[in-house]
Amino acid sequence: MESKRPVVLYGASGFSGRLVAEFLREYNVPFIAAGRSRAKIEDVMNHVPGIETANYEIVEVGGSVEELTALFSGAKVVCNTVGPFIYNGPRVLEASLKAGCHYLDISGEQVWIREIAEKWSAKFAAKGLLAAPGTAFMSAMSDAAARLCLESAAIDTIETLTMFKGIPTFGSTQTIFAVIQTDGCYLEQSQYKPWPRVTRYDAAVPGYIQTQLALAWGGFPQPVWFKDHPQVANVRSIGGLLDRQIMEGVAATEKLFEEQIRPLPKPEQERKLAEMASSVQGSTPPRENTREQRTIDVVVGRGSTDYVQCVIFGTCCYRQTGLIQAFAAHNLVHTPPRKVGFASAAEAFGHREVLKVVESYGLAKAKIYS
Ligand SMILES: NC(=O)c1ccc[n+]([C@@H]2O[C@H](COP(=O)([O-])OP(=O)(O)OC[C@H]3O[C@@H](n4cnc5c(N)ncnc54)[C@H](OP(=O)(O)O)[C@@H]3O)[C@@H](O)[C@H]2O)c1
């Protein structure tokens, strides 16, 4: 009998899922393309370039912890691309732990990242397993850049800005709206402090003449990744799309949420946010184009007498995400992570390694200024 394939890609029919599949094929990692609809996964997989040379099978699976545990058992790594993760993450994470699998996802929602750090990390560590949410363009790249900055200057304060030009997918749009209900935090003297609600930040972005509109967007993962860091005490992360019109729309929705939706019961809040997101993006955008879908990460590090800045100019945020996931899964198939329990991709696989792999595919280039 053929042994179980080592990687389960859950959410294989999604825009990001298909890109993870594309890069798992490049890494020659055998995988199970899983999700709630066999027909949808088949259709999507048939369009993945070169998929005929991949070692994979398709499995339709129900969404309960029991069904997912049964599917994951015998595999080594779960790649979860089913968002919003504040809604869909817990059952997949629990099933991964029960099945004895390393857990990776492509989330960016700070409350979800924090839940894993505070409630799940020790359980994964006890089994020698990694739980690495946020193993994706946003915010693994800026996290790796921040750790590069830490090598070259005596800094204790980090600010990050991550922005991309592109068309958010159905799942991304649902997530952008879902996080509006959550309270994001920054880190001040190693303590979480809530970002003020409904606040806009004008950002001067290298490579652009006009300022860009950025938001705290639920806080981003970095404050959680650096919460107990021995050197870093202050972390603020903001970001958004390199499209002022879209960002004005998100900022207006944040305001509307505070005025009209927050007073409603929680399920009603979630329903209204999902409805609004669906009216903005109800379908799947076309494949990214390197010459159009640009990305930028800016990391500024400051100490009492020192300063360093790292800027990553890149392209195609969803392809970066597919590559980072596949790189991480490939690593875990072959070797234990550098850290078990909760960790960022940079901590688990090396920040230079994460940056180099994305650079090697021509999807990003990091520059240090000090
Ligand atoms: N941090 C980053 O840089 C980054 C990058 C990319 C994406 N993301 C996040 O990743 C998530 C997915 O994005 P995407 O672009 O792949 O979205 P997408 O194209 O809409 O795909 C979503 C996937 O999730 C599945 N799904 C949704 N709800 C489900 C449920 N209740 N049960 C089982 N499967 C479910 C969908 O299955 P069906 O096809 O059956 O509907 C589909 O496979 C979003 O939260 C997005 O914000 C983050």
**What is the architecture of the largest domain at the second tier of CATH?**
2-Layer Sandwich
Strand content: 15-25%
Rg (CA only): 19 Å
Shape annotation = globular
Q: What is the third-level CATH name, the topology of the largest domain?
A: Dihydrodipicolinate Reductase, domain 2
- Which ranges are low-confidence, i.e. pLDDT below 50, for 5 or more consecutive residues? none
Helix-and-strand structural type: alpha/beta
Note down, in words, how this protein is organized:
This protein has 370 residues and is α/β, with parallel strands linked by helices. The protein has two domains: 7-136 and 318-356, 3-Layer(aba) Sandwich (Rossmann fold); 138-317, Dihydrodipicolinate Reductase, domain 2 (2-Layer Sandwich). 42% of the residues lie in helices and 22% in strands. The protein has 13 helices and 16 strands. The strands form four sheets. The protein has a seven-stranded parallel beta sheet with strand order 3-2-1-4-5-6-15, sandwiched between helices. Strands 12-7-13-14-16 form a five-stranded mixed beta sheet. It is globular, with a radius of gyration of 19 Å.
Lay out the secondary structure:
Layout: E1 7-10, H1 15-26, E2 31-35, H2 38-45, E3 56-60, H3 65-72, E4 77-80, H4 85-99, E5 102-105, H5 110-126, E6 130-132, H6 137-152, E7 157-164, H7 170-178, E8 185-188, E9 191-194, E10 201-203, E11 212-214, H8 222-225, E12 234-241, H9 244-261, H10 266-280, E13 294-302, E14 307-315, H11 317-334, E15 341-342, H12 345-349, H13 351-360, E16 364-369
Parallel strand pairs: 1-2, 1-4, 2-3, 4-5, 5-6, 6-15, 7-12
Antiparallel strand pairs: 7-13, 8-9, 10-11, 13-14, 14-16
This protein binds NADP nicotinamide-adenine-dinucleotide phosphate.
NADP nicotinamide-adenine-dinucleotide phosphate (NAP) binds at residues 11, 13-17, 35-37, 40, 63, 81-85, 88, 106, 108, 136-138, 169-172, 175, 284, 317-318, 321.
